[in-house]
Design brief:
Helix content is 21%, strand content 27%. The chain is α+β, with helices and mostly antiparallel strands. It has one domain: Nucleoside Triphosphate Pyrophosphohydrolase (Alpha-Beta Complex). The longest helix has 15 residues.
Length: 244
């Protein structure tokens, strides 16, 4: 059974630097989105991949974040070599308006578009690739979802210029990446780098990113204490944290 904790205003409720609150018209409906937190464990301290968002973005400009973005309709139809574990599928299925597999597939596509890294395995899929996936499949790769863990879900508070209902996934880089190529800066993310969790906390990051880094730290250090994925959402009395 899901556990819900209600809390008053805190850092998660406050606008990030560079945001403009729009209170003179209805708050926009959140758009489905997905984020991938790639974790490297090939050194003494675990590292995660982060990059800085362009200053031209209306949503969290110049903040350091994980790769990710909005779910596109074709994402749910992208063929993969493996599917999500049943436990992760069930968590994603709760209150979802689309197929659960669309979310990790979006995270894979966005990671490829924003960093050049290929999450998947060498392989061929039958039929024509869905729109937006032509270049990814053209590299002789196919997605694999079996190593994905849902570590959290968060809905952007109201009155922001952009709102997202984002699912955050964790995957081990050594198991998920097709090769050891370095990430490449692009129009969406720059200064891409593998950073330790402590160094990530010292970057200019959104509050929800800070929260998810804490979840990553707990999963890596005390996996036996993990009890579901947190769902951060807004209520009239403040934000609520529910465990999926």
């Amino acid at each position: 059974m899901a556990e819900t904790t209600k809390r008053g205003p805190n850092a998660y409720d406050k606008p990030e630097d560079g945001e403009v609150l729009i209170r003179d018209r209805p708050s926009p409906r959140p758009r489905d989105a997905a984020t991938l937190i790639l974790v490297r464990r090939d050194q003494a301290a675990a590292r995660v991949l982060m990059g800085m968002r362009s200053g031209q973005h209306a949503f969290m400009p110049k903040k350091y974040v994980f790769p990710g973005g909005r779910v596109d309709p074709p994402d749910g139809r992208a063929p993969s070599l493996t599917e999500l574990p049943e436990t992760e599928h069930e968590r994603l299925e709760k209150a979802a308006r689309r197929r659960p597999r669309a979310f990790p597939l979006t995270a894979i596509r966005e990671t490829f578009e924003e960093t050049g890294l290929i999450v998947g395995r060498a392989g061929q899929v039958d039929g024509k690739p869905p729109q937006g996936w032509e270049t990814y499949y053209g590299r002789g790769a196919a997605p694999c979802l079996q190593g994905f863990q849902l570590i959290g879900r968060a809905v952007t508070p109201p009155y922001r210029p952009r709102r997202y209902d984002a699912r955050f996934f964790m995957a081990l880089a050594e198991e998920s990446l097709i090769d050891e190529r370095p990430p490449v800066d692009g129009a969406e993310l720059s200064d891409l780098q593998w950073v330790t969790l402590d160094d990530a906390m010292a970057l200019d990051i959104p509050s929800v990113t800070r929260f998810m880094l804490g979840e990553i730290k707990e999963r890596l250090e005390q996996p036996q204490r993990v009890s579901g994925a947190p769902f951060l959402k807004w209520t009239r009395s403040g934000h609520a944290v529910e465990r999926l």
